[in-house]
Prior knowledge:
The structure holds 2 protein chains of 2 kinds. Chain A is built from 2 helices and no strands. By secondary structure, chain A is an all-alpha fold. Chain A has a domain at 23-51. By secondary structure, chain B is mainly alpha-helical. Chain B has one domain (2-193). Chain B starts with 6 loop residues before the first helix and ends with a helix. Classes of the chains: A mainly alpha, B mainly alpha. At the A-B interface, helix 1 and helix 2 of A face helix 1, helix 2 and helix 6 of B.
Amino acid sequence: MRLRRREAHLKNFEFLLAAYLVVWGIFMLFETSVARRVARLEQELDRVRGLLPPEK
Amino acid sequence: MGDVQRIFYVHVACAWTGFVSFFLVFLANLGYLARRDPRFDWLAVSAAEIGVAFCSVVLITGPLWAKPVWGIWWTWDARLTSTFVLWLLYVAYLLLRGLLPDPLRRARISAVFGIFAFLDVPLVYMSIRWFPTQHPRPVIAGGEGSGLDPVMWQVLLVCLAAMLALLGRLLVQRYRTEALRHAVEELSFELQAR
């Protein structure tokens, strides 16, 4: 009885797992993409600042 | 439904957080048109990108829940279709920005587009009340016969708080990229002017 109830609960577990993996995947990708853009822009900012002559 | 029912918490929390993101886009677009301050434009594009991420989660977790429960991945039901249109509208908003090189023109045109795009949000919310077909009727604020178990409410609120916190963190980071981009453009312009 208990085993049957447990099996019923575990039915479709792969869909639940897939859904939570999708959530983590999308937000991890977004976070990584934003962090990369910030790093690239900070490098670009340093490069452009270096090209400007120092203020007197 | 078994364990698959637990998709509800993340699906609904992401949908509501997506609505909050699009509402922020709407407010920032109104702010830009009223004040012409570029910071409103930075906020709008940041919130739009995050809103698209949340809406993508909703559009993927929905079919993952639908398949074992309804037996189909997708149907052109009013709620599903209007949510897909919402996603398309904000993807178009982001693509439109990429097509306009002039920052002032880009901010103005995308602000108008963003305000119109927000009109779909109340339509998505009301779709299951106005056109009840495949998607379940509202269990929250759905009138007589609707409601949620108190324990489920607690879990949903925890999930919602987590998603709102994630929205806040992503918004701060994404806004920073716009501020940095602006600083780079300003300095490059200064360099060219010398």
